[in-house]
Amino acid sequence: MIATKLPAGWKSIGDAQIVLNSDQQIVLNCGDSQLQVSPLANDLVRIRVTPTSGSQDLGSWAVAKERWDLPKHGFSDDGRNVTIDLKDFKIRISKSPVRVTFLTPEGDIINQDDSSKGMGWDGSEVRVWKTMPENELYYGFGEKTGMLDRRGLAMTDWNSDIPAYTPGTDPLYQSIPFFLGMQNGKFYGIFFDNTFRSSFDMGKESQRYYSFGAEGGTIDYYFFYGPSPKKVLERFTELTGRMNLPPKWALGYQQCRWSYSPEAKVRDIAENFRKRNIPCDVIYLDIDYMDGYRCFTWSKENFPNPQKMVSDLAHDGFKIVTIIDPGIKKDSTYWVYQEGARGNHFVRKADSAVFIGPVWPGDCAFPDFANTDARIWWGGLYKDLVKTGIKGFWNDMNEPSVFDVPSKTFPLDARHNVDGEVETHAEIHNVYGMEMARGTYEGLLKLQPNERPFVLTRAGYAGTQRYSAAWTGDNVSSWEHLAMAMPMCMNFGLSGQPFVGPDIGGFIGTPTGEMYTRWLEYGVFLPLCRSHSVKGSINKEPWAFGENFEAINRKFIELRYRLLPYLYTEFYKASVTGVPIMRPLMLEFPEDKTTYRIDTQFMVGGDILVSPVVEAGSTTRRMYLPAGNWYDFWTREKIAGGKWIEAAAPIDRIPIFVRAGSVIPMQQVVQYSDQAPADPLTFEIFPSDTAHGLCYEDDGISFDYRKGMYRSVDVDVKIEGNVISLERSKAKGTFTPAARSVVFAINGVTRRPGSISIRGVSISEAKTLEEVKEGWIFDASQKCLSIKTMDTPDAFSVSIK
Ligand code: MIG
User: Which of 144, 343, 683, 794 minimizes the number of CB atoms within 10 Å of its CB?
Assistant: First the structure.
């Protein structure tokens, strides 16, 4: 036996003595402990080590899918090694010492336990050590500051409220113990499902191995094999759940501040948006709308008639989102406190008295969101706000954050009543925020069963995307933060949470007009597009920096609205695949090594590449275009990729490229998402020899799409010599938009067409498309041929000669 070299005090897993193989599980009895290997799919296995004395599997907060159609596995035991064969990979376990190795079907090692350390524990701590190949990179890990690739870094998972965090701050608000490992474009994933304070050391301590572990609980992890990164993410989000399709308005521009108050200020902000023709869907109310920070109340003084205000603003297309914190003011005359106390819904200390800690309202009690009854009670509290017309809810401070105590949170031995089972705060801490968001989400569903909830949470754990969007907390108005928000959001997306964004413009501090505009220019491409700012800061609305910047800000927010059909389609795809909307380049181009460490460029969906400007005073941007052909979104010029370029980036432009071969659905500018239906619906076509795209639509608000009330069409274009043929598929689904036009704008067309026919009938050239129901125009300077017709549900083709 090889001597184990664990840290002093650590005990290694013992040798395997008895091996049992069944359809569900392979169990290796290893002295004091037991190694359980559970294949769940051909590319997914769960690895668990428990004491032989028995430890119940109490279930997981993260796992959404408990029952799997178990794959058939091959099994062999040659005395030294146990080998388990799955279709996509195999697992080899040496018995003495017990070490786990994952291999491709051909026998190449994907990932293996460190030979000298393996798996072990010390008291209540558990840890797994893995060999770290020289050329392996690591992504994901939830919400982390710093760069995209995490190799060489050590990170902790412990939900923490750290305002004005810096690029070195760790941990932050969310804990998602999942990562992707990648060598040469081949990916695996590991999800360490342990809610205790945990840590990942990805080569900081040693370049020879990496490790992950926690201060309690068991070794319990899932191993996913791709090798494609999208396949890993699809499987990971099958396990932990996917974002539900949000209401379409949540994709609009969102304006926040701590705080817009009183009512006159909120109305003034709304008026400014409409007067200035800057599109906006959402205005947030931060903590000052409440009566003394009491959740679920209104300040009578500042908001005397919330119902009237909300309905007036709704009339102008605004949706109001209010903040709700977990801290419930300890006030015997306050109904929420009374109900919580009476219902026994609050977290208790080890001595069983209700835990009281100070936050905004002063001394507070905190709902025990780990308890089903408490969550149901909590969900019901939203009733009056929903009746008032509030459309979404923003759950803050739910790490949980507590003022004036060194730990900034509950005592670790505080007690949560997990439906009869008492668990300590040490175990529940990292899921407290997720369970708050869950209580909110499920409560809203109960109050309005056929309306998609919008919840935004600060804290979370793996799986929070099932209930809520997320933002990256209290960032800073600096170029460093402007740049860092990109890898932060991308790693969030690679951890199962696609609906993310930072406070655009920076929360704390004072951006220059240039910085605010540069931030917004790419902010409009983020899944969550929200400006926010701290109390006492300068104004940070899109018009706050003078007319020149205002005009640019308007143009970019308009661009987001023009792109709504594309963004909504990408949201829909993310809700069914788990592949994020905002993507690092390597997710689309895993074969291209240059993409592996690109932090400040990103893809929106599969087809649009955005290269923000991240420095003051720049007018050009050195950027990487991955292999293939691209179109410059601004000039429509075609350019070959696979190289670094210096792209023009004057203050009113950031480089945006569209992948050749794509079709991007777009629409006219509207002032809010549901102001008017898309008309015309425009398919911007960027051909290579072919082009393909999809447009998904539905009513934008209800769950009827799940019953088939949606409309999805494919557009396929083929170019052969001088002939372009376009096929619009038959519309799928039963959702029927009002009669409208559709425009196909084919870019890169150099020759004026001789004849065009649609549905077999020839159509004529027009002067402008606005005035005709059907016709075409050719813009030689833009190399763009635009064809307009009625958007009928049947399949039809367009032929251009
Ligand atoms: O202790 O509600 O991250 O977005 O504006 C600060 C006031 C509490 C922190 C949030 C921030 C919000 C602020 N909150």
Answer: 794
